[in-house]
């Protein structure tokens, strides 16, 4: 197959590519070479990768090709090049969390999710860029990822490299984490699908914690089905993670076969529209209308009070991050970048009463959602109150106070506190030309309802199939 054809295939979805690999019409080795070539060509401008593991990836590609030729096909991830956020431990590449604190640190073992992905046959291309230790800002020694839709627009945090790499087709899908929107913000900003599973559904063993009671691991992909394939590979009980859920292993991919008939979609118009860009809110309503045309039903829910959690996210995150960094802070405080140091300094000043008040707010939010899910299957809302904001207005290096962060968290923080699964997906274009998105929220372990909803929306829309124009990045090679 020619280089140009392979480069075009790199922009496809896992579900499109997997049958070609299974039928041995496409070589995992050739595909991995093509993806590494794209990375070499585009990453110097997009800064999506911190480390490219070419030798490891090609070794894995050769192994998967031998397995497939021998009749040992493991499933839709077998032979597929993907990438992971640089806070997952790997024994084949450094794990730095994009920080000077861990520069060149190597683990002697892999994270649970890394082992699971490789057991499924995935080929890991490298480690993706991120904000320092998965909070809100980048270490000043590193270049921030660049939004392929507009280099002057925000890429989202903290799995920003995951969003950029997936959108620019520098991997077929990626793995991120979400403590306060870190899968959903990059998905929304880069026009890709982001799936934050139920808290505890995916093991966090071997991933560096930001806030242990809020951390989730999940995929970013170019379609709902691809996100489902990734989640099926990484989900499951792990005794090494104290929050891991014990339940029978089940595939959620079957949910892509379900229609939207009878699906109940919860709408809180006040929640969707209050302090929200009108075009962002309209994208949510339009998505619900699309699903109604397929047999879904719109029901009214009242969840506006859940936004009270916004002001509690920073204190809880700061307190739990302080615990996670006790080996480095305050002894190496000056090696942190200004964003993360601010978080740790804030956590160091909190009282037990402050933390306890925030945990009480979590219980209140859970009660609100219990009432909502008594009458609906999923809730529709934005992921962000605005389209991706301009870096001219809020530069990457700007250190925002906690009170400035809270308004951005209205559709994000509550579902980290409650642990509910969420699905974020492309839903249009803003008048600025930047992506719009819609978020669906389900009850605990309601991933099948999310996949059912999202896949039916994708069946009759084209937003997830759009790719950014990478010509400016191609022409700026150095």
Summarize the structure.
By secondary structure, this protein is of the alpha/beta class.
Topology:
Layout: H1 3-9, H2 14-22, H3 28-46, E1 49-52, H4 54-69, E2 81-85, H5 112-119, E3 123-128, H6 160-167, E4 173-178, H7 184-190, E5 193-196, E6 216-221, H8 224-234, E7 264-267, H9 269-273, H10 278-292, E8 297-300, H11 310-324, H12 338-349, H13 352-373, E9 378-381, H14 402-405, H15 413-418, E10 422-429, E11 435-442, H16 447-459, H17 471-475
Parallel strand pairs: 2-3, 2-4, 7-8, 7-9
Antiparallel strand pairs: 1-3, 4-6, 5-6, 5-10, 9-11, 10-11
Helix pairs in contact: 1-3, 3-4, 6-7, 11-12, 11-13
Keywords:
globular; 38% helix; Amidase signature (AS) enzymes; alpha/beta; single chain; 12% strand; 478 residues
């Amino acid at each position: 197959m020619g280089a140009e054809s392979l480069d075009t295939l790199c922009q496809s979805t896992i579900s499109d590519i997997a049958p070609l690999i299974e039928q041995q019409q496409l070589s995992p080795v050739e595909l991995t070479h093509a993806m590494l070539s794209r990375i070499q060509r585009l990453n110097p401008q997009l800064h999506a990768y911190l480390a490219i593991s070419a030798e490891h990836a090609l070794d894995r590609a050769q192994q998967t090709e031998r397995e497939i030729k021998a009749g040992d096909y493991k499933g839709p991830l077998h032979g597929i090049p993907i990438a992971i956020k640089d806070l997952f431990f790997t024994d084949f590449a450094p794990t730095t969390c994009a920080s000077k604190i861990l520069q060149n640190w190597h683990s002697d073992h892999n994270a649970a999710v890394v082992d699971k992905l490789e057991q499924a046959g995935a080929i890991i291309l490298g480690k993706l860029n991120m904000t320092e230790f998965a909070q809100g800002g980048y270490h000043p020694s590193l270049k921030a990822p660049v939004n392929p839709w507009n280099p002057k627009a925000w890429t989202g945090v903290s799995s920003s490299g995951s969003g950029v790499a997936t959108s620019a087709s520098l991997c077929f899908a990626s793995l991120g984490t979400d403590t306060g929107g870190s899968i959903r913000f990059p998905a929304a900003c880069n026009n890709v699908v982001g799936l934050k599973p139920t808290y505890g559904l995916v093991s966090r063993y071997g991933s560096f914690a930001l806030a242990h009671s809020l951390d989730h691991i999940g995929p970013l992909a170019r379609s709902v089905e691809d996100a489902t394939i990734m989640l099926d590979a990484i989900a499951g009980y792990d005794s090494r993670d104290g929050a891991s859920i014990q339940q029978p292993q089940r595939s959620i991919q079957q949910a892509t076969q379900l229609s939207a008939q009878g699906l109940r979609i919860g709408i809180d118009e006040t929640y969707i529209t209050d302090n929200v860009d009108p075009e962002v809110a309209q994208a949510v309503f339009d998505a619900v209308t699309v699903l109604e045309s397929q047999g879904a039903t719109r029901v009214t829910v009242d969840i506006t009070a859940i936004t009270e959690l916004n002001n509690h996210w920073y204190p809880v995150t700061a307190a739990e991050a302080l615990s996670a960094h006790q080996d480095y802070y305050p002894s190496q405080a000056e090696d942190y970048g200004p964003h993360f140091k601010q978080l740790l300094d804030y956590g160091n000043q909190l009282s037990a009463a402050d933390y306890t008040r925030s945990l009480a707010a979590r219980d209140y939010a859970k009660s609100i959602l219990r009432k909502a899910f008594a009458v609906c299957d999923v809730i529709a809302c934005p992921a962000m109150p605005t389209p991706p904001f301009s870096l001219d207005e809020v530069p990457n290096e700007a250190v925002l106070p906690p009170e400035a962060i809270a308004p951005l968290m209205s559709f994000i923080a509550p579902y980290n506190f409650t642990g509910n699964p969420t699905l974020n997906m492309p839903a249009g274009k803003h008048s600025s030309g930047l992506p719009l998105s819609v978020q669906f929220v389900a009850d605990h372990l309601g991933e099948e309802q999310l996949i059912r909803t999202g896949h039916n929306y994708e069946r009759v829309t084209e937003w997830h199939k759009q790719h950014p124009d990478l010509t400016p990045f191609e022409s700026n090679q150095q």
